[in-house]
Amino acid sequence: MNDDEVPQTDAYVDGNTLAGPLSAVFGGDLTTATAVCAGCGHAAQVATLPVFGAPMGLVARCPGCSQMLLGYTDLPGGRTLDMHGMASLRLPIA
């Protein structure tokens, strides 16, 4: 399966699952940030994104078109964050 294919399962969790991994990268809670899909332009709060887990990492998908917005992998050699599916990530003003 390539990054842009829709998973063949309906089993997912919400974007709150990304709170810990993203805070490890950015140093804060990004679940209230708004992710804008580069494919269809759909905007949604990170906490509401469908997140699919795998032994190798987490994948957040656009609720509008199912494109991969974010991929996160935590490996012994370091963390990988792939955000190629996002046009932007809007952070709320503190």
Structure characterization notes:
With 94 residues, the protein is mainly β. The radius of gyration is 12 Å and the shape is globular. The termini are far apart. Residues 1-8 have low confidence and may be disordered. The strands form 2 sheets. A 4-stranded antiparallel β-sheet has the order 3-4-5-6, covered by helices on one side. A 3-stranded antiparallel β-sheet has the order 2-1-7, with no helix packed on it. The protein is 9% helix and 36% strand. It has 1 helix and 7 strands; from the N terminus they run H-E-E-E-E-E-E-E. The chain has one domain (15-90). The chain has one helix at residues 19-26, and strands at residues 34-37, 43-45, 51-54, 57-61, 68-75, 78-82, 86-90.
In summary, what is this structure?
The protein has 94 residues and is mainly beta. Helices cover 9% and strands 36% of the residues. It has one domain.
Give the number of domains. 1
> Radius of gyration from the CA trace?
12 Å
Structure class:
mainly beta
What average pLDDT do the residues reach?
Answer: 86
From the N-terminal CA to the C-terminal CA, the straight-line distance is: 39 Å
Question: Biggest sheet, strands in spatial order?
Answer: 3-4-5-6
What portion of residues belong to β-strands? 35-45%
Low-confidence stretches: 1-8
Largest sheet geometry: 4 strands, antiparallel
H-E order: HEEEEEEE
Cα shape: globular
Question: What is the helix content?
Answer: under 10%
